[in-house]
Amino acid sequence: MMKYEKINEYDENKFRRITGVKRATFEKMVEILKKSYAEKHKRRGRKPKLSIENQLLAALEYWREYRTYAHIAASYGIAESNIYRSIKWIENTLIKDGTFSLPGKKELLKSDTDYEVVLIDATETPVERPQKNKESITQERKKDTL
Of 54, 63, 116, 140, which has the fewest beta carbons less than 10 angstroms from its beta carbon? Predict the structure, then answer.
């Protein structure tokens, strides 16, 4: 049984805990990806080893858990390069569709909502370490060495 078939049996709360998105959002993503895949492979093309749902699950694992491509590839039983290409295709397809994009700065300025801005000073400061000098280092006596 593939991962999607197993996760699809979970209730809504467990599904969201595992994937990081609601089931309706996941289904919308799958719909967008299937439409794009069908358009890309109109005439011919090799069937992917993983279904669109499992490819999306792999991408969500990568984004949510910060797993490496090697670990994801091992858990799905395909090559690391295939996982990389699949995740990049999913990212580009979902970005190009625009359904899941956030509003831009201009849209935020047009709205009547007041936003509170909190600034955090995150400048780098040098770490204070003891300086090495001749007084702080115990020297070996030269006559004791050969």
Answer: 116
Burial of 110 per CB tally in 10 Å (0-12, 13-18, 19+): exposed
pLDDT tens readout for residues 47-57: 888 999 999 99
pLDDT single digits (tens) 94-112: 989 888 777 777 776 777 7
Distances (CA, A) of 52 to 4, 85, 86: 10, 13, 9
Contact 15, 56 (CB under 8 A): no
Phi, psi of 135, rounded to the nearest 5 degrees: -70, -30
Amino acid occupying residue 41: H
How many Å separate Cα 69 from the centre of its chain? 10
**Does residue 34 contact residue 107 with C-beta atoms inside 8 Å?**
no
Q: Which of 25, 100, 20, 9 is nearest to 58 (CA)?
A: 20
Q: What are phi and psi of 76, to 5 degrees?
A: -100, -10
**Token pair for residue 93?**
């397809």
